[in-house]
Amino acid sequence: MTLDDAYENAAHIDGSQEYPPRWAKEAQAFRDSLGARAQTGVRYGPTPRQVLDFFEPTGVSRGTVMFVHGGYWHMLDKSCWSHLAAGCLAHGRAFAVPSYPLAPDARIAAITRSVAAAIERVADEVAGPIRLIGHSAGGHLVARMACEGVLPGAVADRIRRVVPISGVHDLAPLIHTRMNDTLRLDEAEAAAESPACLAPRPGLPVTFWVGAGERPEFLRQTRLAAERWAAHGAPVADIYEAGRHHFDVIDSLARPDGALTREVLR
Question: Does the global pTM surpass 0.90?
Fold first, then answer.
């Protein structure tokens, strides 16, 4: 197995081409259903992609969950994931979904800073605790938010739980893939932006989550991050969800009783 194949998900998932249009359709229908409780295109920075969508529950919010999307840091945007807010909204939590600048226009370090800015924007506008969940590249990005020194102290103190889903937590192997023609990673940036190589914020609960049916490299990356952070004494767990692959592993977030909804709100 080559490194390129190790990180190739779509080729190993039956019907993979059906997922993006389904996500987009379900997300649009969900936004339409919320009416005034959906605020779209909220700006958090000066570049065109530094915008987020914000969904409010009925009644007074008990805090906010932010979902950071995947796409290997160079694809997709906030518009495909709105429906994943349903589970957390049902429990009285607001839900935010940012877009962020993409490679090759932005390096991964700049994308990290952009996600941090999105969290700061939400923290400025909404009271209460914040929980972070992200998928694939978004799993990497929320893990970076759990590292020391990324978020300002007052914002970091409000983060209650982080759930990286199917993340890439050691970026060094990507240097040797075709994807790096777009990402432009070098050894220094890979080390600086790899959560598995960094110290987590003390005391912050983190659950590394992955589908048990995913590519072996994603299982390895999840295990590596959990073991490295546990060695720092962090309160971490790693969960391998049976019967799930890289594309459907996020589905339970859309349900009030879904496994991911329960975990991020735990």
Answer: yes
